[in-house]
Write a structure and sequence with these properties.
With about 170 residues, the chain is α+β, with helices and mostly antiparallel strands. It has 5 helices and 8 strands. The longest helix is centred in the middle third of the chain and has 17 residues.
């Protein structure tokens, strides 16, 4: 019985972390309104999506054990570095992992993204996330404009263009 339970957990982990299509494109959002998002960062400080109104925000759900998540994070960082001053922000929502594990992960990967902890899976459920990574692009009025399941090259000309089109006009 124990071997069966371990096998079942392994299969479940694989299913949850397999992207729908590697190198996916952003798809227009056809779902409902933007769910609330208010979590704590690694320092324990509260961070709320509502506080970022007026910015374009990439909300990315990920885990340290998810290979496609790890693969796409450097391109998220590059896009954040490139467009941050223009009003672009990334909220990387980690799924139910402890601060120590996330900290160890970040020691190996120098990311300067806002990492939030979904310690009990409530945010994942509210956002309807079933596969990692799953991302949502939120416009300046806090509406979900695009979604993608699977890893993305966030600096590809097409994806960057879609994000730039949403940025505040100066």
């Amino acid at each position: 019985m124990h071997r069966h339970a371990v096998s079942l957990l392994f299969i479940l982990a694989l299913l949850v972390s397999v992207p729908a299509r590697a190198g996916s494109d952003l798809k227009p959002w056809t779902g409902g309104p933007t769910p609330q998002l208010s979590l704590r960062d690694l320092a324990g400080q509260p961070v709320s999506l509502a506080d970022l109104k007026g910015k374009v925000v990439l909300v990315n759900f990920w885990a340290t054990w998810c290979a496609p998540c790890i693969e796409e994070m450097p391109s998220m960082q590059r896009l954040r570095d490139k467009l941050g001053l223009a009003g672009f922000e990334v909220l990387a929502v980690n799924f139910q992992e402890g601060a120590a594990r996330i900290g160890d992960f970040l020691k190996k990967r120098p990311l300067q993204l806002t990492i939030l902890r979904d310690h009990d899976g409530t945010a994942r459920t509210a956002w309807g996330v079933r596969v990692f990574p799953t991302s949502f692009v939120i416009d300046t009025d806090q509406r979900i404009r695009y979604t993608v399941t699977g890893d993305v090259d966030w600096t590809s000309p097409k994806v960057e263009g879609q994000i730039r089109a949403l940025l505040p006009k100066s």
